[in-house]
């Protein structure tokens, strides 16, 4: 969104192909649209957080921000990380693994933000999609985060109906396999943790395939 607000008329940022990288970066940072956006959003962020901190003290800061950095949710979920976090939860280096799990997620969100910022709806969709897919905790309600953005990009995704149905079918079947293994674990008492994790890996692979297909078949609005 920051890059999108920094655009000039016609989607340009006021620089040419001959400009150096540092000049291009500076033109983005110093653009009036972006400065205004930074001042407004930054002020509101500080104001709201300041009020909450005044009301609840450090407990607000801990549960709002720090908890999500150090959180270790080892219960079975769709994330490919859950089994690794489960096996290492009692080790001295578990917190390192938990932090490292953020790196792929953070890198991809930043890369997609830089690459697709001119097409804001598509940028928000792919960023949200990779955030959920690569998150340390992934449950069904998280899917609504990117599904709510899907209608905004569908008109520009040129995928035939047959392939779209295959993608939807693969997405649903991979979830059904995971839910079946999780049912045996949660309700029948069978030790199917490895099977649940295998289904998580399959679901992860399906999501990566879907994301790749959407990206290569999207007509960009710049």
Automatic annotation (TrEMBL):
Keywords: Endoplasmic reticulum, Glycosyltransferase, GPI-anchor biosynthesis, Membrane, Transferase, Transmembrane, Transmembrane helix. One of its GO terms (biological process) is GPI anchor biosynthetic process. Pfam families: Mannosyl_trans (PF05007). The chain crosses the membrane at residues 35-56, 93-112, 124-147, 167-185, 192-215. GO terms for cellular component: endoplasmic reticulum membrane; glycosylphosphatidylinositol-mannosyltransferase I complex. It is a multi-pass membrane protein. It is found in: Endoplasmic reticulum membrane. Pathway: Glycolipid biosynthesis; glycosylphosphatidylinositol-anchor biosynthesis. One of its GO terms (molecular function) is alpha-1,4-mannosyltransferase activity. Its main location: endoplasmic reticulum. Belongs to the PIGM family. Catalytic subunit of the glycosylphosphatidylinositol-mannosyltransferase I complex which catalyzes the transfer of the first mannose, via an alpha-1,4 bond from a dolichol-phosphate-mannose (Dol-P-Man) to the glucosaminyl acyl phosphatidylinositol (GlcN-(acyl)PI) intermediate to generate alpha-D-Man-(1->4)-alpha-D-GlcN-(1->6)-(1-radyl,2-acyl-sn-glycero-3-phospho)-2-acyl-inositol and participates in the sixth step of the glycosylphosphatidylinositol-anchor biosynthesis. This is GPI alpha-1,4-mannosyltransferase I, catalytic subunit. It comes from Paramuricea clavata (Red gorgonian).
